[in-house]
Write a structure and sequence with these properties.
Layout lengths: L9 H6 L7 E4 L3 E5 L9 E5 L11 H22 L3 E7 L7 E7 L4 H14 L2 H5 L3 H13 L1
Antiparallel strand pairs: 1-2, 2-3, 3-5, 4-5
Length: 147
């Protein structure tokens, strides 16, 4: 077993070559693969080779690798698939092994509509609108800086 892998983790199995994958790119610390349940053509996952549930728990070197590989693969997507943008978000909840989703996204597709809806939601509820007020922003900034 590769150091830091966990039995029963599909991503660890892929890293140990016990499970197949559509490998796109890798370096010493990270691997980019096609998602088996894609949101769009070319949807990839970027995973660290060490089993770590949350991206913010990665070492500095692993984190740099993860986001460097994500950038390389996103550039490949832009060149090969010509999407409007590449959506990126980090997960680790359903499969407790950090993974970054890279999804080529086009105007009007499901992710574009989702993010447009989220932006409208973000702008409308009074409770969220209050978070944009100067005093609220200063309070949150201070709280985060102290932690």
């Amino acid at each position: 077993m590769v150091e830091g892998t966990k039995n029963g983790c599909i991503f660890c199995d892929i890293i140990e070559e016990k499970a197949p994958c559509g490998k796109i790119y890798e370096d010493e610390l990270s691997l980019a693969i096609l998602d088996i349940n894609p949101f769009s053509k070319g949807h990839c996952l970027v995973i660290p080779k060490r089993h770590v549930p949350w991206w913010h728990e990665l070492s500095e070197e692993e984190n740099a690798s993860l986001f460097r590989v994500a950038k390389i693969v996103a550039e490949k997507m832009m060149n090969a698939l010509n999407p409007d943008f590449v959506c990126m978000y980090a997960r680790g909840r359903r499969i407790p092994h950090t993974h970054i989703f890279l999804v080529p996204t086009y105007s009007g597709d499901v992710l574009d509509r989702f993010f447009n809806a989220m932006e409208l939601f973000q702008e409308s509820p009074p409770k969220l609108a209050a978070l944009r007020e100067k005093n609220s922003m200063e309070d949150v900034a201070e709280l985060l800086r102290k932690t």
